[in-house]
Write a structure and sequence with these properties.
With 328 residues, the protein is α+β, with helices and mostly antiparallel strands. The chain has a single domain, classed as HIT family, subunit A (2-Layer Sandwich). It has helices at residues 35-40, 109-126, 164-180, 184-195, 231-234, 238-258, 276-281, 285-288, 318-327; strands at 3-6, 13-16, 45-50, 56-62, 77-79, 82-86, 90-96, 134-141, 153-159, 199-203, 206-209, 220-224, 262-267, 292-297. The protein is globular and about 50 Å long. It starts with a strand and ends with a helix.
Length: 328
């Protein structure tokens, strides 16, 4: 089994070992997500939604070359200063309808609502597994975003670790709360709504804005006005889920008018089924964190400067970006 190894100088986890599936380097000849290939494949169907005629609308399958595998125990161990564990987790593909040429923005509104419903369902299900510390849902659309299959699909990765950017975000939220006893995202929302310089849209309990220190041109964040750390609990009612689906799809349509290539990722709270020491460490999580969705258009092949150092260069001011996005 592949192993996870942690770099003690950055806390970054890396998957290592011979069992790691090599990344795909070319587009498959036949689309693996189209109905004909799906009918002939041996893929494990984890969940799905069907119409009245029995045709599947949204389907969740196990990835054929998963980053992490569901079988086995974590087997945490130390090697001197180093920490390691088995690469246990889940890697799922969420296929968004049978139309190969569709995009997120062009999906039928009812289909998009089902998609968001499935996102929530998979989070609820996987958080029951005490091995899974964090579940990340993201989507690459278009060649500039790294998508090898054009058929619309999202990915879900459940892992026993926190993604590096999410962990830094959680620590920053915790620090802000310790200093001010307020959620930093709630503070951010209050200021952005007051200033109106970077707000793109504000309706039905959700706000779309270009962040003050945008990393990419036309980067947008979608946040609920009402504070909630947990996505699946925050959109628990059918009315809120439907409002989010409509608002998110409208935001994605704006993005697609700038570029057909985009990336979006959901940031929500980690699982609470963790050892007691972690529960105590993140004890203010429900008060200090605020779930949100990050939307990143891909306008050019080179999107980062000094990639390994996480140093970004964005030539478009977020105030100007928000002004243009409002007009779309």
């Amino acid at each position: 089994m592949a192993r996870l190894r942690q770099d003690p100088t950055t806390w970054q986890w890396v998957i290592t070992g011979n069992a790691v599936s090599p990344p795909a380097t070319s587009v498959p000849e036949a689309c693996p997500f189209c109905p004909a290939q799906q009918a002939a494949s041996q893929e494990i169907v984890i969940a799905e939604r069907r119409d009245a005629q029995g045709n599947w609308l949204v389907r969740v399958v196990a990835d054929r070359a998963p980053l992490l595998r569901i079988e086995g125990e974590l087997d945490r161990s130390g090697e001197g200063i180093f920490d390691t564990m088995n690469a246990v987790g889940a890697h799922e593909i969420i296929i968004e309808g049978q139309n190969h040429n569709a995009t997120l923005g062009s999906l039928a509104p009812e289909l998009f609502r089902l998609l968001v419903e499935v996102f929530r369902e998979r989070l609820v299900d996987l958080k029951r597994d005490p091995r899974m510390r964090y579940i990340e849902i993201f989507q690459n659309q278009g060649p500039l975003a790294g998508a090898l299959v054009s058929h619309p699909h999202a990915q879900l990765v459940a892992s026993p670790i926190l993604p590096h950017r999410v962990e830094r975000e959680l620590r920053a939220c915790q620090k802000h709360y310790q200093n001010k006893e307020r959620c930093v995202f709630c503070d951010l929302l209050r200021q952005e709504i007051k200033d109106q310089k970077r707000v793109v849209a504000d309706q039905d309990g959700f706000v779309l804005l270009c962040p003050y220190a945008s990393r990419y041109p036309y980067e947008m964040w979608l946040l609920p006005r009402r504070h909630h750390s947990c996505f699946e609990e925050g959109v628990g009612s059918p009315e809120v889920l439907a409002a989010l689906a409509n608002f998110l799809q409208a935001a994605l349509r704006k993005t697609e008018r700038l570029s057909p290539s985009l990336y979006f990722v959901l940031h929500t709270e980690p699982s609470r089924l963790v050892p007691r020491v972690l529960q105590e460490y993140w004890r203010t999580l429900s008060e200090d964190f605020h779930w949100h969705i990050e939307i990143l258009p891909r306008l050019e092949a080179r999107r980062k400067y000094l990639r390994e150092e996480e140093f970004y260069l964005n030539p478009v001011l977020p105030e100007e970006a928000a002004q243009q996005l409002r007009r779309l």
